Amino acid sequence: MQIVGYDATDGGLLVSDGDGAVEYVSLDPGTELSYRLGDRHCAGVVVDDGHRPCDADETPHCHEHTSTWVCARCTGTCLKDEMDCFDDHAVYLAAFAPETFKVGVTKAWRLEIRLREQGADRGAHVRTVANGRIAREIEAELAAEIPDRVRVPTKRAGLARSVDEAAWETLLDGFDPLETLDLDYGLDLSERPVAETVATGRVRGTKGRLLVLDHAGSTYAVDLRDLVGYEVVTGGTDRRLQSSLGAFG
């Protein structure tokens, strides 16, 4: 078996059985995971009829199986042969505890979904525009002052913390939000989880691509992307993991 992908929207792992079939493993709260991680190599590609493996050393994907969404690089000049983003788009601000902020764009109907995919704690819808080109132009202008991306270690460092209300409100003072969102992931954390790459334990939940697990008295935060490419067997981890302070209480 091999972990070949993840779903940051609903929280799930894609696990190939080695013969092409792919199982969706839910990461709903309370789910018990019991995978032991083995060797790691390229995760290949998942297509309509199943999984096509690859034994290249690069992880999580080799050059041949790495794809980049062209729209993610757009700053207003379309990089496709023909522009196709004619839906209403939202320009938004996102907050990550305690005081990290970013600007982004998404199709208007996907606003909350997109914020949850990123694991944002707060969101503010600041503009609605007629298409993606205009949205990307505005985003590029705002990105001169507000970052347009936040790295996973920064998001992980904010787990169990709250958004700095004063800093968030100060940022919003420069806008007139159409809507604000306060997002909850039900993790109920009293201390920051230990950063680990493990797939054994009871799921507390997911926050973007961060998976939060309880195992052996400690709580761990796992970047789902770091699991992709690992060969796995059932039976639970046999590694000695760092314990959280709460494990000694």
First-to-last CA distance: 37 Å
User: Which ranges are low-confidence, i.e. pLDDT below 50, for 5 or more consecutive residues?
Assistant: none
Multimeric status of the protein: single chain
Structural class: alpha+beta
Number of strands: 15
Mean pLDDT comes to: 90
- In spatial order, strands of the major sheet run 11-14-13-12-4-15
The rounded Rg comes to: 20 Å
H/E series: EEEEEEEEHEHHHEEEEEHE
Task: Give a structural overview.
This protein has 249 residues and is an alpha+beta fold. It has two domains: 2-68 and 187-248, no CATH class; 70-182, no CATH class. 15% of the residues lie in helices and 35% in strands. It has five helices and 15 strands. The strands form four sheets. It has a six-stranded mixed β-sheet. A four-stranded antiparallel β-sheet has the order 8-7-9-10. Strand 5 (45-47) and strand 6 (50-52) form a beta hairpin. It is globular, with a radius of gyration of 20 Å.
